[in-house]
Amino acid sequence: MPLPNINPTTTSSWEKLQEHYNKINNVHMKDLFAQDGERANKFTIKWDDFYVDFSKNRITEETFKYLLELADEVRLKEAIQSQFSGEKINKTEGRSVLHTALRAPNDAEFYVDGVNIVPEVHQVKQKIQSFTSEVVNGDRKGFTGKPFTDVVNIGIGGSDLGPAMVVESLQYYKNHLTTHFVSNVDGDHVNEVIKKLNPETTLFVVVSKTFTTQETLSNANTIKNWFLQSATEDAIAKHFVAVSTNIESVKRFGIDENNVFPMWDWVGGRFSLWSAVGLSISLAVGYSNFDSLLVGANKMDEHFKNEDFKSNIPVVLALISVWYNNFFKAESEAVIGYSQYLNQFATYLQQGIMESNGKSVDRNGNPIDYETGTLIWGEPGTNSQHAFFQLIHQGTKLIPADFIGFVKSLHGNKDHQDKLTSNFLAQTEALLNGKTKEEVIAEGADESIVPFKVFKGNKPTNTIFINKLTPESLGKLIAMYEHKIFVQGVIWNIFSYDQFGVELGKQLANKILQELNISNVNNHDSSTNNLLNYYKKSV
Questions:
Q1: How far is CA 460 from the centre of its chain?
Q2: What is the sign, positive or negative, of the torsion defined by CA atoms of 312, 325, 343, 192?
């Protein structure tokens, strides 16, 4: 059955939440902790190697009760079943949404149009494993007989952000291959990467479902032309592979049909790193680590699908996000990973969350008069503490934040890990408590300075404490946010899996590209006309 189609603002739980918000929006979390010694235990979920503390939020047990009622009223359980059963919940594009099938075990069953797709998924996984083994072990060689030393992933959007983030996050587990990513159509980007490469020992992975994406094909052809300065056309088959559905275009490019890894239309680009789009991940860290990533994601899938909502991590995080977005009118959320390995994690989530839920039309096609998607931003701690934390602590905006930390470091330096963890914990405590005028005075501050050193506190945070950054735990973490996106989309009554907003700019860019060869352009607005003509005169 299709997704439930319920305007959340018409539910009784939404009305209860609004009345409840009016009563408690100025309540300080310090008082809530003082009133209930069991608060932290009541608002903590312990699951596998995850410890999720959501007690430092501006919620009470009553708030939580109404949020869970909202999940029931929008028929979230039914929506989850529709997704996992392969229903075409991406209705605007007529597609199922089954990235969860990509990480399912080989005895699982996921059906699309009556066909179990799991055997086909595992057939591709076997191909990824074999190819990875040949490259990593040096059995597959370049055109001069040398083993590969470098891998270049050529893609954009979901064909770049996911693999790039995972490879960065799992640097500790990397093998001898050096992985590079080319995405931007900016020629300076691709040329800076080329400078580092030896054509004899570099493998190129072109990732484009249609094999027509402008940025990806432009970069692939530039790299191909550079490569052919050192090699013949025949050598392309040894050095280029593709992740695509457009076999004919791939073959015309010169790629061996045996080196094409398929994609499916039931996987959205921003959820595709689990598929052959993750080939560069497998090459960078080895297939066993890539498989562990999938295993972790599958564990989170099972948790999300089966766990009661009150202890369901993605559901709870989504409900809290809706609480701030729709009632406190908080427009953004920060994601702070206390690991330098998570340097690209917030960037990855920006696409996943903002491309999915940046919608202003509901599932009936009607304009929405309530807030939907949140702005996502962040950087690793402790760097971010010395940058934008000032705004979170003392600014005028309410910015809920997820703090992600790991109990154990990978390289085992306890001194560094203790200092990192002390910052991780101290920041959430400081955001909770702030600092009163009396405390500032007690510290001996000059009276004229006192107002500037007062912190109101009452700034909400979720703390996601994970035992260790492993491929499996990273898989769980990514899948957790994927399911949070889904829950929010269900509550907001929007379609999370299309991205028509991306297309208009592409169409206009193609039009303007043709006009760069016309002497004078005046068929745009006056600003665009002026800018276009200025560019043509200046180059």
A1: 21
A2: positive
Each residue's pLDDT tens digit, 280-320: 999 999 999 999 999 999 999 999 999 999 999 999 999 99
Q: Within 10 Å of residue 520's Cβ, how many Cβ atoms?
A: 9
Cβ neighbours of residue 506 under 8 Å, at least 6 residues apart?
A: 214
Could you tell me how many residues make up the chain? 539
User: Do you find a cis peptide bond into 382, omega within 30 degrees of 0?
Assistant: yes
CA dist 216 → 189, 255, 537 (Å): 12, 15, 28
First to last CA, the chain: 56
> What DSSP character marks residue 50?
E
Residues identified as active-site = 355, 386, 506
Contact 293, 472 (CB under 8 A): yes
Q: Count CB-CB contacts under 10 A for residue 311.
A: 14
Mean pLDDT within 131-156:
98
Asked whether the beta carbons of 211 and 249 are under 8 A apart, the reply is: yes
Q: Where are the alpha helices (DSSP H) in 94-245?
A: 118-136, 161-169, 187-194, 214-227, 236-239
Please tell me the distance from the alpha carbon of residue 166 to that of residue 474, in angstroms, as a whole number. 8
Return the exposure string of 433-446: e unless at least 16 CB atoms fall within 10 Å of the residue's CB, then b: bbeeeeebeeeebe
CB 315 within 8 A of CB 489: no
Q: Which single residue is written with the structure tokens 């996050």?
A: 169
pTM for this prediction: 0.97
Whole-number Å distance between alpha carbons of 474 and 337: 12
